[in-house]
Amino acid sequence: AGSSCVLICPLYSNLILVTWKISLKDGGLCMLSYRPDKDRLNTTNCSDSMNWNFRPPRDPALEIQRVGIVHEGHYTCEVAAKEGNFHKMYNLMVLVPPRLMLYCDEHKNPVCEAAAGKPAAQISWAPEGNCTHKEEGHDNGTVSVLSRFTDYSTGVVNATCFVSHPAGNQSKTIVC
């Protein structure tokens, strides 16, 4: 999320028509097309963040700027050329790294929160001990995970929270 993404479409020397058909996860449809014979670009129902990343006759790539969850969906590039018809498909899934927060609750238990990540993060502790996990889904598709370290038997005052996520791993240590 937040970065740019470029989806590549094959280039053929004898282009007749190039079309990007985009079916977004939220149900929106968008289409971009280019006809070399008329040197015309057409866009239908696409956000300003989706643009051609080429100048004909170079590769007909699609660039999505400031990628967000709203851009998730199926992207298909269709090329009509004298050599035949070709297509390339992408399924765009957006990763949102969670915000890591670590604090002590009112009972002096360490609490680790991986807030608003997509997909949900995994939380583990060092030293290992008893902990409770709770997940909360948000309307925008992100998930917050809260883990409370409750291992009173060890008497440990230092606890390290490890957050594992496809967008990157994080850790923090706290003394409660």
UniProtKB/TrEMBL annotation:
One biological-process term from Gene Ontology?
regulation of neuroinflammatory response
Boundaries of every Ig-like domain copy: 1-87
- Keyword Cell membrane on this protein? no
The protein's topology relative to the membrane is: Single-pass membrane protein
Give the matching InterPro entries.
Answer: CD200R, Ig-like_dom, Ig-like_dom_sf, Ig-like_fold
Q: Which GO terms describe its cellular component?
A: external side of plasma membrane
Give start-end ranges for the coiled-coil region(s).
none
Q: Which PROSITE patterns match?
A: IG_LIKE
Give one GO molecular function term: signaling receptor activity
Regions crossing the membrane: none
Q: Where is the protein situated, by its record's location annotation?
A: Membrane
Which keywords has UniProt assigned to this entry? Disulfide bond, Glycoprotein, Membrane, Transmembrane, Transmembrane helix
Keyword Electron transport assigned: no
| Family membership noted in the UniProt record | Belongs to the CD200R family.
Protein name, as recorded: MOR1A protein
